[in-house]
Amino acid sequence: MLDGSDGYVTEDGRKIGAVVMEMKNITLRFGGVVAIENISFDIREGEIRAIIGPNGAGKSSMLNVISGFYIPQEGEVWFHGAKRPPMKPFEVARQGIARTFQNIALFEGMSVLDNVMTGRLTHMTAGIPAQALWKGRAEAEEVANREVAEKIIDFLEIQHIRKTPVARLPYGLKKRVELARALAAEPRLLLLDEPMAGMNVEEKEDMCRFILDVNDEFGTTIALIEHDMGVVMDLSDRVVVMDYGKKIGDGTPDEVRSNQEVIDAYLGVSHD
Ligand SMILES: Nc1ncnc2c1ncn2[C@@H]1O[C@H](COP(=O)(O)OP(=O)(O)OP(=O)(O)O)[C@@H](O)[C@H]1O
Ligand SMILES: [Mg+2]
């Protein structure tokens, strides 16, 4: 399926480009716990890349390394052809990487619109002194940011709740608002940590559709962690499988599904 460094065409005819994110020999420890042990994998432009594995395998830790929340003790992170120095999460966000969290991280007391607007923070250039000196520029920026937020709200079909405080929303909609906040940053790479966890079947179907639409309409590269194997196999182009901090599989859904080590560690056992 892979044809050299330029990319490949998926079964459904989507064009996947060059490598945008490369993790090289990443090791991450917490005291004596090795959360990630010498793992390498890449993510290509336009790809939907899944990370799967049992609880505690190190999946969230890997996403946290990509998003700059954790700095690995060993290994290199390459993004768009450049080795990334240790960076703070906001610096990583400025490079065009946005994320959602395994446990929803929203401002519960604020409206949906205001939460989505927080996703624009990395794009705000006019600081407070500038706002005082050039009121016009700050206002123009506010208007532009609001337009992007409203566009994303329309796209994710949450107009009807745009003024509602997040605390009043059911779980499935909160997850969608969190996706909206991440998308408001107009990321090149979107990281989703269990975007469908705890959802009912209908909510999962909606979320799957939105993930595919984001990838299709904005061309966003997506890396996602998910336990629902039906969803993973349907959505993703390639899958990394982790177990106890190690990589035990990497390939197309068909390839990992028939990988005996993956079956033994994860697919063959029940896990919720
Ligand atoms: N901040 C931390 N401090 C100490 N240990 C941690 C920390 N974060 C993760 N770990 C440990 O690292 C290992 C991997 O955890 P991680 O959360 O990455 O797993 P996961 O694959 O996302 O699991 P789950 O499917 O349950 O979300 C676990 O043993 C966990 O206890
Ligand atoms: Mg996790």
TrEMBL record:
Source superkingdom: Bacteria
SMART domains referenced in this protein's UniProt entry, alphabetically: AAA
Gene3D superfamilies reported in the protein's UniProt record: P-loop containing nucleotide triphosphate hydrolases
ABC transporter domain: residues covered: 21-269
Transmembrane residue ranges: none
One term under GO cellular component: plasma membrane
InterPro entries: AAA+_ATPase, ABC_AA/LPS_Transport, ABC_transporter-like_ATP-bd, BCA_ABC_TP_C, P-loop_NTPase
Keywords: ATP-binding, Nucleotide-binding, Transport
MF (Gene Ontology): ATP binding; ATP hydrolysis activity
Pfam families for the chain: ABC_tran (PF00005), BCA_ABC_TP_C (PF12399)
UniProt name for this protein: ABC transporter ATP-binding protein
Naturally occurring in which organism (per UniProt): Pukyongiella litopenaei
Taxonomic placement: Bacteria, Pseudomonadati, Pseudomonadota, Alphaproteobacteria, Rhodobacterales
